[in-house]
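Thread: Modeling a multi-component assembly for a lab meeting

Hi all, long-time lurker, first post. My supervisor asked me to bring a structural picture of a complex we are working on to next week's group meeting, and I have zero experience with this. I have the sequence lines for every component (520 residues in total). Could someone generate the structure of the whole assembly? Inputs are pasted exactly as I received them:
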Amino acid sequence: MKSFLTSFALAMTGILCVVLLWAALAGNVAPDLPSPLKTWEESKPFILQPWEKRGEMDQGILRMASYSLVRVAKGFFLAILVGTPLGFLLGSSTLFYRMFDPTIQVLRPISPLAWLPLGLILFRQSEPAALFTIALCSMWPTVINTMHGVRSIPQDYLNVAKVLRLSPWKKFTKVWLPATLPYMFTGFRLSLGLAWLVIVAAEMLTGTPGVGGFLWQEYNSLIYSHILLCIVTIGVVGFALDRLMGLAEAKLRAA
Amino acid sequence: MQRPLEISSLSKTFDTPTGPHTVVKDFNVKIQPGEFISLLGHSGCGKSTVLSIVAGLQQATLGGVIIDGTEVNTPGLDRGVVFQSPCLLPWLSALDNVLLAARQAHPTLAAAAQREVALKYLNLVGVAEFASSMPAELSQGTQQRVAIARALSLEPRFLLFDEPFGMLDSMTRFELQDLVLELWEQDRKTVILVTHDIDEAIYLSDRIVLMTDGPEARVGLDLPISLPRPRDRRMASSNADYFRLRAEVIRFLDHHSRQFNREAA
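Re: Modeling a multi-component assembly
Sure thing. I ran the full set together rather than chain by chain. Output:
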C-alpha cells in the first residue's frame, strides 16, 4: 500500500512537471499554445457535461470518446476475426508461411493515412472506410503473436495429441487453442492499442464525429485549447484500454 | 494366438548440416506377446529413436515395425506411450487428461461410462484422490502416475515407456517401478521400456536388449533375465543371478563405451 502511494505521488509529480513546462512555454516561446488554465476554461463545458449533445460536432467529451470507442471496437473485432485465423494458418503451415509472410512484412509498416483513401475508393463511404483502415492497421500484432504462439506449442503436447490420435477438431480445441491463448491475448492487447492509435487519423480524414473528428474540426475553427483537450482524452482512454486488456491478460495467465 | 511385435532391419538416418547421420542401423528385435523388454544403452545411442518409431511418432528410413503382419508407421491406440516428462496438458485436470484418452479408446460409450474408465485407471495407479487437481498442483511422481493412467485407459496391447522415471527422485522412482511391475503382473501387456538404469532394466524385464553406441547403433546383446517372478527389491542385494546379470550388463556397456572412446579418439 505504501509503495502504491509512493508510485502514485511520483506519477502525479511527473504530470505536474509537464503541466508546469506547458505553462512556461505557453504564450511566450509558443505564442499560439493555449495555457493550461485557458485550456481548462474553454474545455469546461465539454468535461463537466460529458454526455451533452449540443450539435453534431459540439458534444461532451465522453460522448465523443464513446463514438470513437464504438468505431475502434468494430474495427478491432474485425481485425481479430481475420487476424487470429490468419495467425493460426501462418503458424501451422510452413508452405502458407513462406507464401504469405513476405507480403505481410510489406503490408505491416503501411500507415493508416495511406490505407484510408483506398478504403474511401473501395467503400465510397467514410464509416466502412474507417473500419477497413482500423482493421487493416491493427491486425498485425494479432497475426504475428498468434503465429508465434502456434509455433511455440511444446512438441510434448503435439506428441500426446498424436499418440492419442485426436481428431483435427479435438487437437485444435484441446491442445492448440489453449496453448496459444496467452500469445493471442498479447496480440489482442497490442492490436487494440494500434486500433486506438489509428482512430484519430481515420476520423480526421473522414470528418466523422468522435475525438479525432472533433480535434480536426477545432483545428480548422482555430480553437486550439480543444485540440489539447482531445489529445489528453485520447491519451487517457488509450491508457485505460491498455490497462483493461492487461488485467484480462493477467487473469488469463493465472487461470 | 497373437503374433510378436517385430522391429525388422530398422534404420534411421537424419539429415544434418554436416551430411546424413545414421543413428540406428539394421536393428532387429522380436517381442513376444506379454513380454516385458528393456532397451538399454548409453545416452544418445538411439534407443528413444527406436521407441519413437514403434510409437509411430517418427518414420523409419529403412525397415520398420511390424504388428500382426502389418507394417505400422503411424501412432495407434493399440500402443500406449508414457514419455520421459509427464506431458499432461496443463489446462486440463488430472481426470480430464485421462478422459481425453478414455474417450478416444471408447468413443461409443456414454459420457458417464467414459468417466468411469478414466477414474478406474486413476484409481489403479493410486491417484484417484487427485482427479480434480490441475497438473501444476501435483508432484512430478503423481503427474507421471496420471500419465501412466492416461496410457492405460487406452487399454492398449503395447505399453511403450520412454525413460519414464528419469526425472524422478530415487524413492519416487522405486515406487513407480513397483507400480509398473504390479500392473504388468495383472494383465501381462507387452511392454517396451527405454532406460539407461541397469537395475531398473534387470528388476523389471524378461529380456534386456543392449544397444551398441551410436552412430549406427545395433543390437549388441540380447540378454534374457531369467530371475523368478514375482520379484522384489531385496533380490538386488541377495540373489547371485542378479549379480551375474548386472556384471554382464556392466561389462557390455563398459566395453562399448571404451571402444566408442577409442574410435572417437
